[in-house]
Sequence to fold (721 residues):
Amino acid sequence: MSVIFDSKKKTFYLNTNDTTYAFLITPTGFLKHLYYGDKLNDFDIDLESLSPKFKWNLSPEYNSKKEDSFSLNQMLNEYSAFGLGDYREVSFKVTYNDGSRNNDLKYVSHEIHQYKSPIKNMPSLRGDNELVIVLKDEYIELTLFYSVYEKENAITRRAIIKNINNNIVTINSIMSGQLDLFGNDYTIVSLSGEWGKERQIIKHPLNNCIIKIDSKRGASGHSQNPFVLLSKSDTNEYSGLAIGLNLVYSGSFVFKCEHTFDNLVRIVSGINDFDFAWELKREEQFETPELVITYSNCGVNKMSQQFHDLYRNYLINPKYAFKERPILLNNWEATSINFTKENLIKLINEASKYDIDTFVLDDGWFGKREEGFDKGLGDWFVNENKLEGGLKPIIDECKKHNIKFGLWFEPEMINEDSDIYRLHPEYAMKSPKGIINRNRYQLVMDLVNEDAFNYVKESISKILDNNDISYVKWDFNRNLTEYYSQALLPQEQASFAHRYMLQTYRLMDYFVNRYPNIFFEGCASGGGRFDPAMLYYFPQIWCSDNSDAYSREFIQYGTSIVYPLSSFTGHVSVCPSHVDKRITPFKTRCDIASLCSTGFELDITNLSSEEKEEMRNNIKRYKEISSLIRNGDLYRLNNPFEEDLFSMMIVSKDKSNAFVVIGVGKLQKSTSKYLKFKGLGDYNYLIKELGVIKTKSQLEEGILLEFTQDYQTYSFILNKQ
Ligand code: GLA
Fold:
């Protein structure tokens, strides 16, 4: 049983294959966290007696009568409230109509369900168990939800708060979950970066301080991913503690990670409360997004494998999670916005000489969009000036060659220079002080305004209904600024960022359900909204606008800490690269793009004969290994953040085959490096490219490879003999 309640000890145990998470109901009615660690086999252990004891340190005592006094500031808590003497970062804070902000919630009841209830208006993981605990005082009711994923050693948490008194309650902060631990020597690892350099691995020692990882952008963003890893200073890929926390949310989020002098460690995470207020009238309730927590005591790589399995099994649309992904040709880096019907047709013709599944027409096909970004967003009709006869001739050309057709949209945006803005300027998000910020000349569509929402829904549906489209790239190229909707009351404005996110999810939900046969890819100026909530709708996401192969080694290594390889799109693209201006060998570009859901994004009419050959071989090989990318277990072998070498390997679950890519950076001179394999079974394997058979231990000892060229890679397929 994954969820157990011991009624004598009033203790809950959440058990996975390798872990136990335990907490109890105190005699006063609080939820006291007891243990999170390796699986307990003996449930008779008195965990409470093992709880840390503290010296008196001026912490207020709850309801102190001498004999039973205790301090919430010196206790591991499951979900802490403001105003009860717990001075650490707390999980929630509300304001009542008399101005008071403290509450006194106590345990009332709990239920264990056989099925997990989904969050009503937001993405969450599917699951088959749920512990629901209700706490109450006379004003509010708080419900905490826990679900357990045994094989993936994961639990999920979320909360619902309900107003049960007659007056309005304002939520100032409400986190999805809290993790309290005891100890020291912890390190927080974040996936931080910027446009073109997303999800770099950054370590922050957590010692008597608060570390905040957040986004205030109205999107999860390029700068920080909604993820933190709690590890020890000696944790590495294959040993040590690695607890990963990932928020299933695409908007402004926060992780507050705290360590105190008492060696209490706390992480709370949820919707960012820096600009948040949500009013609840009587009987109204508010649901938080879901927080995923997975635990490994054998290093970071195992934690990553657990995330990958969890998301493939329970988050990504099951219709697509393990399904073969189309190999694409996207026109963006070949033509940018300045395409003509003729050069698109040339590209499609050339694509037909290779095994390309889908041609994707990127930005520039709509409204009066011509050469710049300043026109047309929001006008979701074809620019016949550019594409005479509409999309039909392009789609017909694709059909002639048995290639499917995909189309780019940016549904959440609007240009001032568009027919729709001229007709409905109120559809754009702006404050009464007027438009202050533009980015890429665009404004954000105010999806909180139902008319704007319906307009976007209907105008895009019209294109999808009238054309044979099997792939949609959903882009989002600027972050939110004014956080104001003309459709909301003044006192509702601080809820805008979250309401915007809910409406975005509603829009995505509509399209994904109405067009189940269209494959949706997410994008946000590259990887600016790469989070589990987006993966719920879009089985893959454009990882970064930086498709330079060397930079991608870092970006993809960092992304793989949480997200499965099949969830990131990577293309063989233009050289020198648009972002880094770096020149890398064509084979390196093919190898790195093979470590994800692959495609091509360059002018393929202009390739040398060697490149053509390489491209043909690469597609053939990708078809052979793509099942590993979708189903396999990842082993990161060489960390480019720590040494001048990158390698990642993916092994089938039955260990019968594997694919590995290893690459160097800029060389001072030729060098030799050992490639040491991991994760193989006790078999002999043929390394196809070398034509040699090796035992598992020989492969673990490593094979020596010579690198003579800057950014050179080797890639190998291994087959069990
Ligand atoms: C963003 C995307 C690119 C491309 C352009 C089009 O930057 O990340 O892939 O679609 O927009 O404007």
About this structure: The longest strand covers residues 169-182. Residues 105 and 136 are 5 Å apart (CA to CA). The pocket of alpha-D-galactopyranose is lined by residues 332, 362-363, 408, 475, 477, 523, 525-526, 542, 545 (CB under 6 Å).
